[in-house]
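Forum: Protein Structure Q&A
Topic: Joint prediction for protein chains with partners

I've read a bunch of threads here and the consensus seems to be that you should model interacting components together rather than docking separate models afterwards. I'd like to see that in practice. Below is the full input, 727 residues plus whatever partners are listed. Could one of the regulars post the assembled result?
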Amino acid sequence: MKAHAAGVLTGEHYLDGDFACGEGAMAAGCRFVAGYPITPSTEVVERIAKRFPMIGGTFIQMEDELASMAAVVGASWTGTKSMTVTSGPGFSLMMENIGLAAMMETPCVVVNVQRGGPSTGLPTMVGQADMMQARWGSHGDYEIIALSPQSPQEAFDLTIEAFNLAEQYRVPVMFMMDECVGHMTEKVVIPKPEDIEIVPRELTDKPPEEYLPYALDDNMIPEFARAGDGYRFHTTGLTHDERGYPVMSPDCQRVSVTRLVDKIRLNAEKIARYEEEQTDGADVVLVTYGITARVARRAIELSRRKGVKVGVIRLVVVWPFPEKLIRELAGKIKAFVVPEINYGQISLEVERCAAGKATTTLVPHMGGGVHNPMDIVNAIMEAAK
Amino acid sequence: MSKAVKHSAEKVAPPEPDVPAEPQHPVTPYLRMDRIPHIWCPTCGIGTVVRCFVDALVQSKVDLDKVAICSGIGCTGRVAGYLKLDAFHSTHGRPIPFATGLKMGRPELLVTVFSGDGDLVGIGGNHFIHAARRNMDLLVVLVNNFIYGMTGGQNAPTTPLTARSSTMPFGNFERPFNLPHLAESCGATYVARWTSLHVRRLTKSFREAIRRKGFRFIEVIAPCSTLYARLNKLGDGFSLMQFYHDTAVVKNNADTRETAIDFQQRIICGKFVDEERPTFIDMMHEHYEKVLGDKYVPTPPEGGLLSGPENESSSASGPRKKASKRKSSKKAANKGGGDGAQ
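Posted by a regular:
Agreed with the consensus. Here's the joint model:
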C-alpha cells in the first residue's frame, strides 16, 4: 500500500535527525504518539505535536515513560499505528511495557535517541550503549527488531521501515538513533506519497465466532483483531494459549515463548538489512552502525591508502543480528574490527559469530563524543598484521 | 501480513471448559464461561462487583462491541479476563495509561478500567492522579480490600492504621489514602464509594457513570476473608457482610475530606461528586478548533489509521469495511477521515 498524502511532507528539506524521524513516522501512517520529554530525543515529539492536529493524529505527553509505553500498546490495539520516543533513562522505564508489547504481539515503534549512560550519564552527548538493552532489556525471553540510522535521511527512511517491520512481525521495533544523528542537520528528501511503500495494519477477515487471537494458520504471526469491532477478544501479559487465555503450564510456556522468539530468529535473513562493501578478498572487515559508520569512513579511506584491504559491513538492522553473514565472512578474513560508542556490545555478537575463525577487535569509545578516526585506523592496522 | 516460514511448534490443547449446568445464571452470556471457575476465594467481594457492573452495562443498553475493559495485576486485575468484552490484562499499575491509549486510539469506545487498590493507587498512583487531572474519559472501578491479596497479604496504600498485614505484622503505622478525596482533588468528575453489600446502589452508580463522560471513579470496599480478615481476626464471610451492614453510612454529597477509613470504623458511602466538566478530548477538540480552525483534523472516532481510499478499495476485509461504513459523529464526517481526507 502507498502512504497517505496527509502525513507526507514531499520535497527537499534541511532537517535534523529527530525531525526527520518524526516525519518518517507520520509518513508511515503513525497517528498516535505518547511521550515524555527527554534530551536528546524531544525534538521528535515536538515535531509531531506540531503536525499531528492537522493530519488526524493524537499526541499526548504522559506523566512518565511507563505510561507512555503503556498508552502506545493500548492505542495499537485499536489499530492505530503508535510510537513513543525517548532516550536511555526513559528507555529503562519503558522496558516493562516493551515486554508487554512483545508478549501481546503488539506492533509499535520505540525510538531511542541514545546518549551517554549509565543512569543520567551524559544527557546531551552521544552514546551507543543501549544496543544490548534494546535487545533484551525487558525480562524473559523474546526477540525484537532494532534499526540504526546513520543520517537524517535514514532517520526518515528507516522510521518508515521500522513501522513496516512492526506490522509484518507484530513486534515492538526499536529505532536506535544516537544524539549525533538526532541533532545533525542535513538534506532530507521526502518522496511523493505514491513512492512510499507502507505496510498497513492487516485485520483478520475471520468472523468473531471463528477468531482466536493467537491461532496460527500457515505462519508464525497470528491475525490481528482490534478493539471495538465486535471480536470481544482477550489478551494478556500472562503466558497464554491460542484464545489469549492464561495457561500456567510449562507446555504452554514452551509453545508460546518459542514462537515469540522464533518468529524473529527464523526470519532473521528476511529481516536483515545491511550495506556490504569490498568484503571480497578483504583482510579486515569493519562492522559498524549508526553515527560510528560515518566516522569510520575516514578510517577506511586512510587504511586503504596504507594498502590494507578493508571491507565494511554497515548494519542497518542490528537485531536480529546477521549471524550467517558474519559466520561466513569469518572463514574468509583475518579480523573483524568493531568501533562503537560503548565498551563492547555488538562486538560481542561479532566475536560469537566469528567463533574463533577470525579475530574480533573492539574499538571502544566511552561516550560523549565520536571516535578519532586514527583510533580505528590503528586497530585496523594492528588487526591486518 | 508476511507469510513467514512455517513453524512446527504444536498447539497446546485448551483445557476442557467447565460449563455449569442449566439453569443459566443471568450474567452467563456476558462472561467467558470457558474460564469459569474463577480464581477468587469464597466470600471474596470482587465477583459481586462484576455482577453489578454487568447488570449496569445490560440495563444501560450500551453496544457491548464498543466497550473495552482493561485491568492491571492482582485479584481484581483478573476481572478483564472473565468479561466477554474486548479485554486487556495489562501490566501491574498500568491499566490507566493502557486504557488512555485505547481511548485516544479509538475515541468512540467506552473504556473501563477495573483493578485493585494496590494496582491503581500503589504502583499505579502516578497514572491515577494524572488521568484524573486530565479528566481522561475513563470509567475507573477500584475494588478496595485494604491489602495485597494475590501476593499474600502485604501492606497496601489503603491498609487502615493499626490493621495487620504480612509486612506490617505489628499493625500498620503508615497513613492510608482517602481515595474519594484523592480522586476529587485531582479532578475526577464522578466519585462514589460503596461496599460490595450495596448491590443496588452500586449498580445504579455504575449505570450513572456509564452515561457520564470524563474521569469517573467508583471505589468498592470488598472483603478479603483469606488474608485481610484472617490476619485481623475479623471473622467469616457472613460477619464481614454483617460488618458492612452495621457500619456503612450512606452520605451522598459528603465532604470527601471526611471519608477517610479507620480500622473497623464506619465506612462513609455514597455519591460524592457528580459534575460535568470538559474531558481531555473535549478540551483538545475545542482548543484546536479555536486556534487551528479548518486546518484541524481530529482523530476519527473509529480510529486513526484504517480509513483511506487505498485501504477501502484494495482489501476485502470484512471488519474494516464494516468499520468504514459505520456512522461517525458529524464532526468526523465533515472534517475527519483523517488520512483519507484528501
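Chain B has a mean pLDDT of 87.
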